[in-house]
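In the design runs reported in the main text, the only information available to the sequence generator was the tokenized backbone. The following block is the verbatim input for one such run; it is reproduced so that readers can re-run the procedure and compare outputs position by position.
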């Protein structure tokens, strides 16, 4: 089973590893079954889990892929690209603006 985990920094997917009468355990933390809150939550960072739907999983995967693609573009050394490659990139960027 997958959990949609939300906190003040964002959201992610965690896999359930074990369930007891009162807790659901993932690799990273334990959540109370009765309300979904993490046992390690404090007053500054509330961590909450719900059962993840396929839509949740797809949304998180898409967001992670986008973040990785943006980081890849930021780390690309454009000095090594040909003029033709740079012109194609500029054309793509101009089509979106």
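Verbatim output:
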């Amino acid at each position: 089973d997958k959990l949609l985990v939300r906190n003040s920094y964002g959201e992610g997917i965690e896999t359930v590893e074990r369930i007891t009468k009162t807790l659901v355990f993932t690799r990273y933390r334990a959540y109370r079954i009765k309300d979904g809150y993490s046992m390690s939550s404090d007053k500054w960072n509330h961590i909450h889990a719900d059962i993840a739907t396929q839509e949740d999983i797809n949304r998180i995967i898409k967001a992670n892929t986008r973040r990785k693609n943006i980081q890849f573009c930021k780390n690309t050394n454009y000095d090594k690209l040909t003029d033709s490659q740079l012109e194609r990139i500029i054309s793509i960027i101009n089509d979106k603006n």
